[in-house]
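Sorry to interrupt, but I need a hand with the structure work. Go ahead and set the record down below:
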Amino acid sequence: MTKQELRNIFKEKRKALSVHDIEKFNDLILINFQKINLPFINCVHTYVASLKLGEPDTTTIVRYLQFKNPLIKIVIPKIDIHSGNIVHYHFDEEVEMITNAYGIDEPKGGHLILENEIDLVLIPLLAFDKKGFRVGFGKGYYDKFLARCKSNVIKTGLSFFDPVDEIKDISGFDIPLNFCITPKEIFSFSL
């Protein structure tokens, strides 16, 4: 299937999930995430999950990473709609959040973090395939961001659903995941 076909299908699949399903799936994703043998992580970039979009929550994963390294830097994105890029801000309890044009919470400002400081990226997606390619919302923000990261950054997607066999319209700009974590399984691609 094409990216657009998958977007349509998986948006509907997300809408069909109950609050109970989402809570249970988030718990199972955390359990599976904890099974990954990760190197020591100093800096993690995480999306801020949108309940409206039905995204897997990253909060408990971030807390787990903070437990493993209390000094870890947590970084969240802010979309620059004009340039098509993401900028990254250090996140703590003092960061003021605003809602962007897409209805997603993001930092108003703060301490900028460079891509080469990031060790792990938790990546939003709608669907992914058995080769580790993902389908997002179609704006290309994360593929541009990932292309600027250091070569050994660990790219980890979170999904409530299993992979599709293949995304038909992958391009040279698409960057595959290292892992995708679902409630049922850990999918490992290249690391």
